[in-house]
Amino acid sequence: MTIALIILGAGMGTRMNSDMPKVLHHIAGAPMLVHAMKSGAALAPERTVIVAGHGADAVGKAAQAYDPDAVIALQCEQLGTGHAVAEAREALDGFDGDAIVLYGDTPFIRPETLAAMTAARLTHDVVVLGFEAADPGRYGRLIMQADQLDRIVEFKDASDEERAVSLCNSGVVAANARTLFELIDAVSNDNAAGEYYLTDIVGIARAKGMSATVVQCPEAETMGINSRAELAAAEDVFQTRARNAAMADGVTLTAPETVFFAHDTVVGRDTIIEPHVVFGPGASVETGATIRAFSHLEGCHVARGSVVGPYARLRPGAELAEDVKIGNFVEIKNAQIAEGAKVNHLSYVGDADIGARSNIGAGTITCNYDGVFKHKTTIGADAFIGSNTMLVAPVTVGDAAMTGSGSVITKNVPSGDLAVARARQDNKPGFATRLLEKLRAKKAKGNK
Ligand code: UD1
Ligand code: CA
Fold first, then answer.
1. I need a labelling partner for 103 at 20 to 30 A (CA). Which of 165, 304, 334, 435 fits?
2. What pLDDT is recorded for position 12?
3. With a cut of 70, which residues of the chain have pLDDT below it?
4. Is ligand 1 within 6 A of the CB of residue 43?
5. Reported pTM
6. Across the strands, what pairs with 272?
7. In this structure, what DSSP letter does residue 25 have?
8. Biggest alpha carbon–alpha carbon distance for the chain
9. What is the pLDDT of residue 1?
């Protein structure tokens, strides 16, 4: 079955108290809208339509950064969820597969749940995702009649008897796209909120003799985010899931509750992650690596057997080959560190290539920025960079070359050479003793 996603995200999200549209607030380093798109992507949709209103430009940009083929449909006035879906009609012109409506503020629907909905579509015209709510609150209620879903009542419009129902509407709906738009055409705004309710399509479908059913999922999946407190709760839900998934995949987390993953973090089996490690987006760590405490990794790749940290920072473009060692207070950005190389203490390595087995001494800095442009540092294999070397880029240090500690290297160093670029040491015999005696004598006389 070919599928189109319609993801609603036009609302302002007043309760977020933010200048930014609600669906752009982040969970695990990605806008919540992207989480919804990722769940839907598991169905391999032929088209994805994002209905945007408030902050539509920014919403469109975020959506297309994840999926360049996503189409943005504008809903200028927010007249209700039914009206929002109707705005996707043009973008789905000529499409005759199934449409699945998702909410941009409901990020945790699992792909398996959506698959169960498409399976239920084989036997029913309209399929709604529902859940048993611990506290049904203001959710829409799903009213069953025998094995059919008869209608959905919004809380505002529900009788006391209907409000007592605990089977609630998640908002996710699946139907043939043409059928969906036909049903939406029949929706009116004659209700307590004066809105065009998407939920009314169920009653309309049943009146036309169509069939409707509910697929149920755990309440945690349908969690919607409306406030900063709910955003924090959602982050917690994501992190708990991600930690459990990592451990199930054979990753050791010494103190799981202190490790934070991004939405796309990949960690291989038998890797050890010590306490207080934070992953930003785009990090992957292969099998058998160790990420020591208090390290921050983002946009980087760590190959098998490497050790990172404690207190290391891997920034975008950091590529560590096998068995690399990155130690405490080291920052790596846009740099390839070849197999077996070591950068163990207090260094900044940016815009660089470091050859296999090279040792970068404590306090080494690649001076990559001249105030306007960035320049590259290239270090060959088996090189030895003395402690506190400043490598003023662009500069190349050849294979098996050395730099003396404290050097400021401004010229290329040929392979096998030693470069020393610092003032020569001059010892003055006995000078220190004589100077100290003089100063102490002065102090004894009471002079300052
Ligand atoms: C909706 C459902 C309710 C369900 C609940 C689950 C309706 C009428 N009600 O209620 O049955 O239990 O979700 O969370 O559908 N949106 C637009 N344009 C609009 C209105 C909404 O794009 O004109 C978007 C919002 O940005 C949001 C989503 O649709 O992403 C849901 O809208 P919201 O107003 O939060 O619906 P609820 O009142 O929560
Ligand atoms: Ca809502």
1. 165
2. 84
3. 447-448
4. no
5. 0.91
6. 252, 290
7. S
8. 110
9. 83
Q: Is 345 a catalytic residue?
A: yes
Q: Is the CB of 199 under 6 A from ligand 1?
A: yes
pLDDT of the residue at 447: 66
> How many whole angstroms separate alpha carbon 164 and alpha carbon 137?
10
Q: What is the pLDDT of residue 448?
A: 59
N-to-C CA span, the chain: 92
Name the amino acid, one letter, at 380.
G
* Given the residues 35, 124, 276, 345, the one annotated as active site: 345
The mean pLDDT value of the chain amounts to: 97
> Are 392 and 408 in contact, with CB atoms under 8 Å apart?
yes
Q: What SS3 class is residue 15?
A: helix
**Nearest CA-CA partner of 153 in 197, 188, 189:** 197
Nearest atom in ligand 1 to the alpha carbon of residue 193 is: 8
- Determine the Cα–Cα distance for residues 235 and 312; give it in Å rounded to an integer: 24
* Tally of residues, the chain: 448
279 in ligand 1 pocket by Cβ < 6 Å?
A: no
Residue in 12, 102, 103, 155 to alter for ligand 1 test, most ligand atoms within 8 A of Cβ = 103
DSSP assignment letter at 133: -
97 in Cβ contact with 28 (< 8 Å): no
Answer yes or no: are the C-beta atoms of 177 and 95 closer than 8 Å. Answer: yes
Judged by DSSP in three states, 431 sits in: helix
Question: Cα(81) to centroid of ligand 1, in Å?
Answer: 5
DSSP for 184-234 reads: HHT----STT-S--GGGHHHHHHHTT--EEEEE--GGGG----SHHHHHHH
Whether 380 lines ligand 1, by a CB cut-off of 6 Å, is: no
